[in-house]
Amino acid sequence: MNSKTTQCIKRRNKTERGSALVYILIAIALLAALTVTFMQSSGQQTSSQNSFRMVSDVKSQVDTIRSAIVECVLSYRKGDTSIDISGSGTDTDARRNYPIKPNSDHYQSATIGPTAGRLVQDIRCPGDPGNNDENHVPIFRGAYGKFLPPAPDLFEDWQYYNGTDGVFFWIQTNKSDAFITTALQKLDDEYGECEADVIDATGGAVDLDSATPSETECPSGYRCFRIRMITESTAVFNGDTDGEEAAASCP
User: Which residues contact 144 (CB under 8 A, 6 or more apart)?
Assistant: First the structure.
């Protein structure tokens, strides 16, 4: 084999090796691109699933709470007329036939005294066992066959208000997971204008009622989701996620 032929073969081998290397690099690049695409798609799917589950859990608990309160109101229409709704009490302008806040001074003389907070899980039914009886039966402790599940994932326990601005309950979260924003937007769309509020207090605490000082608030660093059952003209409206709700149009 002459030298010219040998050199030709060597050049061909180098070319083939170079071509093979190019193909390998292309294959690696394509695999990397497919992996990134798959991971993004998987992440989006997970976020969508988390958002759907959160919306479903919150709505289910809203229905549970609202139906339990309505059943109490319908069963004991007069409620408890001994509840002090004057400005001197802790239940100013509260509706006596709706559960009052569980930390009310009205329960100072009750068998079950006031709680430390205003959690929905501790609300009681006025009028049961009777009018002018401060021993209101707890709604979610078995007497009514009703139990409130733990708060939805990433949220704190539901809280309750019955006062000058009406009757409402809400949950709050200080978590920053991206899908929470999507879930709150979807929740807002599930309810009528002025029925639900999404309150963004990440930049500072936001009052939820009109009292001075405010009785309730969405704490600084939190986002809150509120459901209204009764709304009075004094009610504070913080807007909604789509910008359609305005204080002038509510209640």
Answer: 68, 71, 72, 125, 137
| Residue 132, Cβ density class (10 Å: 0-12 exposed, 13-18 middle, ≥19 buried) | exposed
pTM (two decimals) = 0.80
Return the SS3 of 228.
strand
Write out pLDDT tens, residues 189-213. 999 888 999 999 999 999 999 998 9
Is residue 204 within 8 Å of 232, Cβ to Cβ? no
**Coil vs helix vs strand at 197:** strand
Measured CA to CA, the distance from residue 204 to residue 215 in angstroms comes to 16
Dist. CA 78–CA 74, nearest whole Å: 9
Hey, what's the torsion of the CAs at 11, 13, 18, 24, to 10 degrees?
170
